[in-house]
Specification:
heterodimer, A: alpha/beta, Rossmann fold, nine-stranded mixed sheet, 13 strands, 27% helix, B: alpha/beta, seven-stranded parallel sheet, five-stranded parallel sheet, 18 strands, 28% helix, 30% strand, binds flavin-adenine dinucleotide, binds adenosine monophosphate
């Protein structure tokens, strides 16, 4: 089985993000970048699938030379080979990103694609379902459980107040949520082996974005916090606020 | 500018999701300001009866794809039907709510239409002819504002961003060809957590607990406080620390790798306020925190804080809320 994982190199979830003076970008100095947390579940699910069905796991990213670090990390976890698509610094939206990735997915022609449910930098949750629809493939997004038979899959996803079980046929794109599995760690042997695994670098096919960045801004400020007091003595003050200001009582 | 907005109206088991009426209201507000037209799209089985309700919120036409095959959600089929409705209605903009369904559906529709998309928008406006949308990025640590440069264009709106407003229109029903089985992917079954519980993402009040609760047995304090607000008002959330410890299911986790909630009131009990937790609740209208550590970061985002022991405060707070509601 040919298994493809789409991974993104993003600032760590605890990074402090500062908008740069130009109001168009973030200050990258001092930021540490990691494999997108949801993509950890995608890589794990791909490796588990290979372990049970056989085949090869390819990891692919669209990004600059700095993203090689994340690709090598995925190879250390157990992926067989990696592909980096060079963007040449162009800022891409969900449309352009998924178009470029879908073109390469089509060329590689895997049986299944795993990706994260969301990249924690742009927080779009677009790329997985977009690629599936563009290629005319099935999709299970935000998978919290997943099972594969020969040419079909089943799984669950969270919805408001419950879950739904989803079935579909291969080829398919599965986007992974936390809870799907327990991602493994890279060991020393994996890290050594990763250095010798193939990493191909290719140029992106041209794709047009349909949004233009106006600005990046810090989040709207929250009102100044008020400490109502200590211990149960502060309860009456809180009740007053809930009644007259929050208006939930 | 005679632009056309098409809003996807999400229904589950014959009930319209309030969040999609919020998206319809946004479309109506934008269209009204420039003399545009608002349409809606409704997909399901035997749902035509909902069209009059949709008309009340401002749709002059409802594009309806109805078939027994569409009783349960299928991303593959619903996206085909909605893309067809977008073509039939000549929509410039296709809106939906950023719900579990909307998040799955709209990117697929955008791909079919070759359209651009903004997801999880928290502010949308027109500047002259241009649609300008703002959305949280980096888990709410920054906001990105973009100008839309191509049409049709898709957008999902964060639930609870604005209140739905009635604004009656004719709601003429227009039939859209319904895709027929077999579908590439489809929902087999809805496994409801429990029907008497308010979904976390839809609750007006969310009461969340963290490691400060000390033991799973103390979770009854979190549940008791949620119940005190009355039936259907509050839902229970959790920090990742207690989810990873196995006290609570992942479906209740609030934060960057959990659910994003935006209720009127968010109450954090024994939660430190790690940056990944704030990612899931920082757009709540009011935040109340109870924590014994006066320096806990949660107090920086809270409107109101009480410093102290949840074990001591919460039982008394439950009683005080009950008496306030009875008064
Ligand atoms: C990639 C990644 C993703 C993450 N995603 C999420 C996410 O989605 N959601 C999330 O919540 N976290 C997430 N985290 C984890 C996050 O960093 C924190 O570890 C977590 O939020 C801490 O949970 P907590 O506040 O319950 O526990 P703690 O940080 O241990 O805080 C407990 C708090 O309770 C207070 N306390 C203790 N006893 C009492 C008492 N008796 N009365 C009152 N207060 C008391 C303490 O003062 C303390 O502030 C993520 C981390 C990573 C690396
Ligand atoms: N530049 C990229 N390169 C490779 N995969 C990506 C890229 N952007 C997004 N993805 C994949 O798509 C998922 C969802 O991203 P997004 O739609 O941007 O939130 C991510 O978790 C990745 O698996």
């Amino acid at each position: 089985m040919e298994i493809l994982v789409l991974v993104k190199h993003v600032p760590a979830s605890d990074a402090s993000i500062k908008v740069a003076a130009d109001g168009q970008s973030i200050e990258s100095a001092g930021l540490s970048f990691v494999l997108n947390p949801y993509d950890e579940y995608a890589v794990e699910e791909a490796l588990k699938t290979k372990e049970s069905k056989g085949g090869t796991v390819t990891v692919m990213t669209l990004g600059g030379a700095e993203t090689v670090k994340t690709l090598r990390h995925c190879l250390a976890l157990g992926a067989d080979k990696a592909v980096r698509i060079e963007t040449n610094g162009k800022n891409t939206d969900g449309l352009a990103t998924s178009t470029i990735l879908a073109n390469k997915v089509e060329e590689l022609n895997p049986d299944i694609v795993f990706c994260g449910k969301q990249a924690i930098d742009n927080d779009d949750s677009q790329v997985g379902p977009r690629i599936a629809a563009k290629l005319g493939w099935a999709c299970l997004s935000e998978a919290s459980s997943f099972e594969l038979t020969d040419s079909a899959f089943s799984g669950t996803r969270d919805i408001e107040g419950g879950k739904e079980s989803v079935e579909g046929t291969l080829p398919a794109v599965i986007t992974c949520d936390k809870g799907l599995n327990e991602p493994r760690y890279a060991n020393m042997k994996g890290i050594m082996m990763a250095k010798k695994k193939p990493l191909e670098e290719v140029d992106a096919t041209p794709a047009e974005a349909k949004v233009e960045l106006v600005s990046l801004t810090p989040p709207p400020p929250r009102p100044a916090p008020t400490i109502l007091g200590e211990g149960p003595d502060a309860i009456p003050a809180l009740i007053e606020k809930l009644k007259n200001e929050v208006k939930v009582l | 500018m005679s632009k056309i907005w098409l809003t996807f109206i999400e229904q589950r088991e014959g009930k319209i999701k309030k969040a999609s009426l919020e998206a319809l209201t946004l479309a109506k507000d934008l269209a009204s300001s420039v003399g545009g037209t608002v349409h809606a799209a409704l997909i399901g089985d035997a749902v035509q009866g909902l069209c009059s309700q949709i008309a009340e919120y401002g749709a002059s036409k409802v594009f309806l794809a109805e078939s027994p095959d569409l009783a349960l959600y299928s991303g593959a089929a619903y996206s085909k039907a909605l893309a067809q409705a977008a073509r039939d209605s000549q929509a410039n903009f296709v809106f939906a709510s950023h719900t579990a369904m909307g998040k799955d559906l709209l990117p697929r529709v955008a791909a079919i239409l070759g359209a651009g998309m903004v997801s999880d928008a928290t502010q949308v406006e027109l500047q002259g002819e241009d649609l300008i949308a703002t959305k949280p990025v980096y888990a709410g640590k920054a906001y990105k504002t973009v100008k839309v440069t191509g049409q049709p264009f898709c957008l999902t709106l964060r639930p609870n961003t604005l209140p739905p407003k009635e604004n009656a229109e004719s709601g003429e029903v227009v039939t859209v060809e319904a895709p027929t089985k077999p579908f590439l992917d489809f929902v087999k079954e809805i496994l409801a957590a429990s029907t008497d519980k308010t979904p976390l993402q839809e609750a007006a009040v969310v009461v969340s607990g963290g490691r400060g609760l000390k033991e799973p047995e103390n979770w009854k304090l979190v549940e008791g406080l949620a119940e005190a607000f009355g039936p259907g008002i509050a839902a229970v959330g959790a920090s990742r620390a207690v989810v990873d410890a196995g006290w609570r299911p992942h479906s209740e986790q609030v934060g960057q790798t959990g659910k994003v909630v935006s209720p009127t009131l968010y109450i954090a009990l024994g939660i430190s306020g790690a940056i990944q937790h704030l990612a899931g609740m920082s757009t709540s209208k009011f935040i109340v925190a109870i924590n014994k550590d006066p320096d806990a970061p949660i107090f920086k985002v809270a409107n109101y804080g009480i410093v102290g022991d949840v074990m001591e405060i919460v039982p008394q707070l439950i009683e005080a809320i009950k008496s306030a509601r009875e008064a």
